Fold this sequence. Notes:
The chain is of the alpha/beta class.
Amino acid sequence: xxxxxxxxxxxxxxxxxxxxxxxxxxxxxxxxxxxxxxxxxxxxxxxxxxxxxxxxxxxxxxxxxxxxxxxxxxxxxxxxxxxxxxxxxxxxxxxxxxxxxxxxxxxxxxxxxxxxxxxxxxxxxxxxxxxxxxxxxxxxxxxxxxxxxxxxxxxxxxx
Length: 159
């Protein structure tokens, strides 16, 4: 049997998923059940757009519940307080200097489940995240990306 991939999460990511699951199960399920009930009361279901829309929403909610439960079942939580700040690992913040664009950037290294480039949370599996992992302050790291080769000098590692 194939090994199930572990979903690496920070504590904040775990809490966010648990909150989303609670919201989906307790609030969203009840809302969509009420919509279906109201649509059924309108009579003929074969031409009832509200009924179809509510059933689609119900399917989406159940699908997301299943997805979140699967992520949580295989979750491995990184305790940020235990993160070794001597080298880059999941759960730490990294300040780097982009040698090409001559600018400082700060990333949080997270598991792929939590990655969000708009919040500067990069996955340990992304090209940049994978290249940075294991390096120390002062190292210069070359990263092959879709945009070409990038070069970063590591300035600091923090929680």
